[in-house]
Amino acid sequence: MPDAHAIIIGAGQCGLAMSRELTSRAIDHIVLDRGKVGQSWRSERWDSLRMLTPNWANLLPGMTHSEPDGYMTSGNFVAQLEAFAAVSKAEVRTNTRVERIAQRGGLFEVHCDTGVLIARSVVLATGAASRPIVPKFAHLMPDEIVQITPDKYRAPSDLPKGEVLVVGASATGVQLAHELRLAGRDVTLAVGNHVRLPRRYRGRDIEHWLHATGVLDQTTDELHDLGRALKLISPQLMGGRDDVDLNALQALGIKVVGRLAAARDGTALFSGGLAHLATAADLKMHRFLDLTDAWIEENGVIAPPPDRPAPTALPADPALSRSLEDGTIRSVIWATEFAPDFSILDMPVFDRRGRLVHNGGVCAMPGLYVLGLPFLRRRRSHHISGAAADARDLADHLASQIKGRAAA
Question: How far is CA 116 from CA 30, 218, 341, 358, in A?
Fold first, then answer.
């Protein structure tokens, strides 16, 4: 007999949201986590981090916050997760590392460091950012340069004195560059594709307009190019009221250069396409702000007049190369990319490029589900605010499968 009908891997916002939905449908299940509830928020975030979105956008079902327009710390969010788990009465087995998942005889075998569990269904809720990815040429960096990924960074004191090269200009990259510069470090930011948004627009946090206009509720069926959407990175925002776009960072004295294309013969080589990328980011930002202005007008919303950010201003001649051997650059933060890690799956559920095959979180292997991936079912799927709706949809599917088996 199975130990539970369903086993959920991961006790973060997605796993706990799924647990709540299964409980409401009287489907017995177990939640497993390698550490404590919200382990990645505990151990893989830097000390000063505040949530990218306001508190009201980070609330799980039934939760409230005394400062809805503030920006909670990762510790605050962990406390919310713990409270949510308690209210939902989720059966969470902490400090249980899943090492392998296989299927045999229509059942899933979940091999843990504590033993083997059997279930009819498995929900992967380990998130979209389980594994940092660094460029293949990272090993060509001089040995004297300290290299670190954001999940290992905690504070400026972690890095040796000297200039820091931050590679990547998504939300993580710009926030770390900002923190390091305020700590007195010389910082160079290598900028590739990026998404520029102002922290506030027309008197409201930009997140308000993303919700109000319905942009975050767009489904995958409504997107013209899902493949392109999947490549979007997090916008240049941080918790608080300060902007961290390229203009704001340069005003602090941060040097911006193009995408880090290679490291060769002791030299970092940067792309010459920075101006083009900045122009494209400005254009996309204005398209959304145009949409916001139109929505405000159509709905008769009273708001201050438009206050558009200034165009991105760049150095006339950004550096195309920097020495890595002259002792100036002492450390590199690879704020480049994160990817999900499904290496525990010992079954044929991947395409030729090693990507998990699924349709809106329902995998080709009956009984296997995934949550928390970008654009899983909606644009907000990998946002905290998207966990509840996606969990509800997948729980409905799982419940229908149970009814189908019972009828059969």
Answer: 13, 40, 20, 25
Asked whether the beta carbons of 249 and 181 are under 8 A apart, the reply is yes
Residues paired with 147 in a beta bridge: 332
Which residues lie below 8 Å from residue 175, measured CB to CB, with a gap of 6+?
Answer: 49, 238, 244
Task: Compute φ and ψ for 116, nearest 5 degrees.
Answer: -110, 130
Nearest to 261 by CA among 276, 253, 271, 249: 271
Token duo for residue 96: 């249980």
Terminal Cα-to-Cα distance of the chain (whole angstroms): 19
Q: How far is CA 137 from CA 100, 142, 160, 368, 373, in A?
A: 31, 11, 22, 36, 27
Q: Where are the beta strands (DSSP E) in 105-178?
A: 107-112, 115-124, 131-133, 146-148, 163-167
Whole-structure pTM value: 0.94
- What pLDDT sits at residue 408? 63
Model pLDDT, residue 1 = 73
CA distances from 284 to 193, 208, 278 (A): 12, 18, 10
* Residues forming a β-bridge with 384: none
CB count within 10 Å of CB 262 equals 15
Q: Write the burial class of residue 218 (CB in 10 Å: 0-12 exposed, 13-18 middle, 19+ buried).
A: middle
Long-range contacts of 326-329 (CB under 8 A, 24+ apart): 327/144, 327/162, 328/162, 328/163, 328/186, 329/145, 329/162, 329/163, 329/164, 329/165, 329/188, 329/268
In angstroms, rounded to a whole number, what is the distance separating the alpha carbons of residues 21 and 367? Answer: 16
Tokens of 30: 């177990």
Query: Mean pLDDT, 10 residues at a time, over the chain (408 residues)?
Result: 93 97 96 96 95 94 91 95 93 96 95 96 93 94 96 96 97 98 98 97 97 93 75 90 97 98 96 96 98 98 97 95 96 94 96 94 96 94 94 97 76
Cα→Cα distances 288→54, 159, 213, Å: 19, 38, 10
- CA-CA distance, 86 to 76, in Å (whole number)? 16
Torsions phi, psi for 296 (to 5 deg): -60, -45
**Closest CA relative to residue 206, chosen from 248, 175, 235:** 235
